[in-house]
Amino acid sequence: MTSPAAAAGRPRLSPRKRAQRIRWVQYALLVAVVIVLVSVADFPQIQKVFFRGDLIHDALTQGLGRAILNTVIYALGAFVLGLVIGTVLALMRLSSVGPYRWLAGIYIEFFRGLPAIVVLIAFGLLPLAFPGMEIPFGTYGTVWSALGIVAAAYMAETIRAGIQAVPKGQVEAARSLGMPAGAATRKIVLPQAFRIVTPPLTNELILVVKDSSLAYIIGLSSTGFDLTKYGRDMASTNANLTPLVVAGLCYLLITLPLTFLVRRMERKAAKAR
Hints:
The protein is mainly alpha-helical and about 270 residues long.
């Protein structure tokens, strides 16, 4: 039985040609949308609101370097703390001791369910709840602690998956040679697990960098301001969004290289398989 297209004398398109035609239609729609946006955009107003030259100059020369440095310090400190706590939690989740597994599970589910901004506010208000209490390193310690314990909840599951990916035969071989369980974990399991989970942990670092933008909520000092606080203050002072655009571009300068690094590591890992 012949198809209607064949009966009408029209050649039937192959799947490849049909996919090509659909792709060209999508390209045409994209070009049409771009043309419409360009035709209706008020470029002088956009430049005035988002890309004012004098404010770009002011943003680049009035403390931007300090803001970038503080953002990096906040992110790295929180990441290191989260990595340490996350490793302990991952080991607790895999422990044969029931209470360890339960405590780690409660911690992970609790802090994965809380927004980072809520934890930051809570840590910022701790001195009010406990008079005389001081978190070490002041504002830095507050941001590190709040973001670190949240990041640890996510890293713990990543590290646990990496540990479980290490072949059990290697641990059994080490134990058969008389190596204690703790030494086998430190010297054999964890090094391999971290090699496996390096790409996803780098993704976690990117998320911590972005979460550090919430630090402004606890009220940063003039020496502790991050990129978001810096951009917000300048934008409010000048009633213009250009400083925030500059701050956003600086975040991209930090996170995009990490994103490319993750993709490169993932490609290498895929080839190794």
